[in-house]
Amino acid sequence: MEKHPVIFTGAGPGAPDLITVRGMKALENADYILYAGSLVPEAVLQWAKSGSEVETSAGMHLDEMASKMAEAWNEGKRVVRLHTGDPSLYGAVREQMAKLDERDIPYEVIPGVTAAFAAAAELKAEYTVPNISQTLIFTRISGRTPVPEKESLLSLAEHKASLAIYLSASMADEVADILSKTYGEQASCAIAYKVSHPEQNIILTTVDKMAGIMEDNKINRLALIIVGPFLDAKGNAQSLLYNKSFSHGYREEA
Questions:
Q1: I need a surface site. Which of 67, 107, 112, 136 has the fewest CB within 10 A?
Q2: Integer CA distances (angstroms), 243 to 109, 126, 252, in order
Q3: Which of 139, 155, 146, 144 is nearest to 225 (CA)?
Q4: How do residues 194-245 score in pLDDT, each as one tens digit?
C-alpha cells in the first residue's frame, strides 16, 4: 500500500482564495483533513474534494491529534493538517511533528500567508520603508504561554521597529502601556481584527486610544496590534532600488 507524507498546510489568514495554490491542491487531493477549527474558517474547506473526511481539532489535545493523523496515514490516506496563517508562526507545529517522528511517519510543510501580511495589504502599507524601518518583528506579550525574558514586549518595542503583536488582544491595556513607554502615546497603530474574514475590522488609531477602542468594539481575540513609524510614511520615503541613478545587474546608471 502506497503511503504519502502528512502535509502540514497553512490556510492563510482566512479568505479561502488567500491559501497558496500548493495548499489548495493539497486539500483537493486529501482523503483526511484535520483542521484547526477554532481559527480556520470552514470556507477554506471548499477546496476539499467530495468524499474526503474532515475533522476539527478544536476539542482535541496533542495526543488525540497525533493519533488521528497516524490512523489515517496507516490506512494509506493522504493526510492534511490544516493550520491558520503559516504553520511556522504560533502554530504549535513542532510538537505535532515530534509525535509523527516518534511513529516514523514522514511529513511535509506548505507555508501560508500570515495575518500580518494580509493586514499590510489592507492598510496599503510597507513594513520596511527606507530610512524609516528596515526591521519587522513578530511577537506576543507574555500570558498563559510565557515569553522568554530576553524577548519581552518591552525589550523588543524599545527598538521602535515595525512591530506586529499576535495573540495579545485580551491584554490590550498592558500592551498599550508598553507601547506608550516606547513608541509614545501619540504613535500611530492599527488594530487588525479577523483580517480577510467577512467580519474584518481594521482600525487606525493612536496608542493612547487603542485599548479603549478595542474594548468598545469587543475585540479581545483574533486581532493583531500593529505599530511602527512605517504607518506614517509618506511617498517621499523612497528606496534606491528604483532610483534612476542606482545601477545594478539589470539596469545601467542613468
A1: 67
A2: 38, 18, 11
A3: 139
A4: 999 999 999 999 999 999 999 999 999 999 999 999 999 876 555 545 555 5
The whole-angstrom separation of Cα 90 and Cα 93 is: 8
The reported pTM is 0.90
- What's the sign of the alpha-carbon dihedral 52, 73, 11, 210? positive
Q: 163: number of CA atoms within 13 Å, CB side?
A: 30
